[in-house]
């Protein structure tokens, strides 16, 4: 039995009366679930191509900085390290996402242990995390959310340990990890905004952990770790706020309307009864009264995301998964009792988990052939955005071939979107293309073409973009993107235009070509 963290032996005695006896961590079976998750992800990692965001991260990794207009520095750095260690293809880039997903599965099981689950409950928590749609999706693609999923879940485990033991020194670990999270995405501030008031509202015992010097010390540590990125943001006029307002303004209504159903989809409908059991347990079970702020914080985080018009997955890591973990202990104890009816219940549960794994894998992982993605892409558009990038580059190369050889020394290839620009950077040399430019996101910061590049301009734009097209003269279509799978993603049938030149020198045009979202 694990009796560490006894409240009566903490530095300040704030945790008196909290239960501390825990079951051993089920290392073998939990690692078995995480290894199975990782094996499936690794086997499928290279089946499709890069996602548009991954191509952007690869480009950003070539321009390492303490910040970018739409994100802090960590994910581009991970992209660079992952490809350096595991190879430049999709499987090499995604190796770090696979590892982060597997680690998240282990952390959810550890959270169940902190909440009193025995061996079966811990394994159920690991399995529930492993088959959930969002963990599968983020374990496949490298995105900022891949690291958020891991680091927010780690923060949830640390906060549970803090609340269970009452040892306020855990705020230092919470602060250090929060600082690292801030180097990946500022969304962790929403978690803090939801969690701290929830602790304050959860009763005197919970409020005790907010007193003293350790919470301010943890907050200071978080700021020190994140300081380089915060300085970069301040020096560049806080561009991430501009991007965030663009997301809310363009997609805010859709995000609000889909918020509740997407919470169910991200977790998996199969696991909703376990999640509800966890919520009831946090509300009613006196043995885990100390963990009640977890449930409050999830509701508060949902409210914040709805008000701000953020994307539905912002509320998932870690609180939805950890509330589910709270229900795994009692569900497992009930089903693992002797008797035929409980045995039938176990068989049904295992069957439902397998169904969830199959359905969610079909939706989020590259299981189907690309030509079969048309229906699924309506549910999960990110699958279709992993197809067709070499073909897009080939279409741009066809447009480049239409430039007379004597004019190529002053010609430019320009893309209106960071996905297309990232594809041209990654695949362009293979097709004989020169350096590519874009005014989208941080591509703008990596500079305009020289003023001596007076044209022609090869322009690719999946959607009409008048503000960009007005910058060029004499444009005519010379090619069209065809991904070869009849898959209607954003780039399919995008026109490639050949323009005779620009209406002004690039140095004057460049501010007009900038766009954030």
Q: Give helix % range.
A: 55-70%
* Number of DSSP helical runs: 21
Indicate the structural class.
mainly alpha
Largest sheet: 5 strands, mixed
Gyration radius over CA: 25 Å
The outline comes out as globular
* Low-confidence regions: 1-17
| Mean pLDDT across residues | 88
> What is the terminal-to-terminal distance?
52 Å
- Percent of sequence in beta strands: under 5%
Instruction: Give the beta-strand count.
Output: 7
Task: Give the H and E element order.
Answer: HHHHHHHHHHHHHHHHHHEHEEHEEEEH
Strands across the major sheet, in which order? 2-1-3-6-5
What's the short story on this structure?
Helices cover 59% and strands 5% of the residues. By secondary structure, it is mainly alpha-helical.
């Amino acid at each position: 039995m694990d009796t560490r963290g006894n409240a009566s032996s903490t530095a300040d005695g704030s945790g008196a009366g909290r239960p501390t006896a825990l079951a051993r961590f089920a290392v073998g079976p939990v690692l078995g679930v995480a290894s199975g998750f990782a094996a499936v992800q690794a086997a499928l990692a290279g089946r499709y191509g890069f996602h548009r965001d991954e191509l952007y991260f690869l480009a950003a990794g070539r321009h390492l900085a303490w910040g970018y207009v739409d994100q802090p520095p960590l994910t581009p750095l991970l992209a660079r390290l992952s490809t350096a260690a595991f190879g430049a293809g999709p499987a090499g880039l995604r190796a770090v996402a696979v590892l982060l997903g597997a680690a998240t599965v282990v952390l959810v099981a550890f959270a169940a242990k902190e909440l009193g689950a025995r061996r079966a409950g811990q394994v159920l928590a690991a399995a529930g995390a492993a088959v959930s749609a969002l963990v599968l999706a983020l374990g496949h693609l490298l995105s900022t959310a891949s690291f958020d999923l891991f680091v927010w879940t780690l923060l949830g485990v640390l906060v549970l340990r803090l609340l269970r033991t009452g040892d306020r020194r855990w705020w230092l670990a919470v602060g250090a990890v929060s600082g690292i999270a801030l180097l990946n995405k500022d969304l962790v501030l929403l978690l803090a905004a939801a969690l701290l008031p929830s602790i304050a509202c959860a009763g005197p015992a919970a409020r005790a952990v907010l007193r003293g010097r350790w919470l301010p010390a943890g907050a200071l540590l978080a700021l020190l770790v994140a300081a380089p990125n915060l300085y970069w943001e301040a020096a560049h006029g806080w561009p991430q706020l501009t991007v965030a307002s663009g997301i809310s303004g363009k997609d805010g209504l859709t995000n609000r309307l889909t918020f509740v159903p997407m919470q169910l989809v991200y977790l998996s409908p199969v696991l909703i009864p376990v999640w509800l059991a966890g919520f009831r347990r946090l509300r009613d079970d006196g043995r885990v009264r100390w963990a009640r702020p977890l449930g409050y914080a999830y509701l508060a985080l949902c409210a914040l995301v709805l008000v701000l018009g953020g994307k539905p997955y912002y509320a998932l890591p870690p609180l939805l998964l950890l509330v589910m973990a709270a229900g795994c202990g009692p569900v497992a104890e009930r089903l693992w009792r002797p008797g035929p009816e409980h045995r039938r219940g176990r068989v049904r549960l295992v069957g439902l988990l397998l169904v969830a794994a199959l359905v969610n894998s079909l939706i989020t992982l590259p299981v189907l052939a690309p030509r079969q993605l048309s229906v699924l892409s309506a549910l999960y558009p990110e699958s279709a955005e992993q197809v067709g990038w070499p073909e897009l580059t080939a279409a741009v190369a066809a447009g480049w071939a239409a430039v007379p050889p004597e004019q190529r020394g002053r010609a430019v290839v320009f893309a209106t979107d960071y996905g297309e620009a990232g594809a041209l950077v990654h695949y362009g040399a293979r097709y004989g293309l020169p350096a590519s430019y874009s005014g989208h996101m941080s591509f703008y910061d990596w500079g305009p073409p020289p003023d001596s590049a007076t044209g022609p301009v090869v322009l690719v734009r999946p959607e009409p973009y008048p503000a960009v097209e007005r910058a060029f003269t004499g444009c005519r279509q010379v090619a069209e993107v065809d991904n070869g799978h009849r898959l209607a993603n954003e780039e399919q049938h995008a026109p490639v235009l050949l323009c005779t030149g620009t209406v002004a020198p690039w140095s004057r045009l460049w501010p007009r070509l900038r766009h954030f979202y």
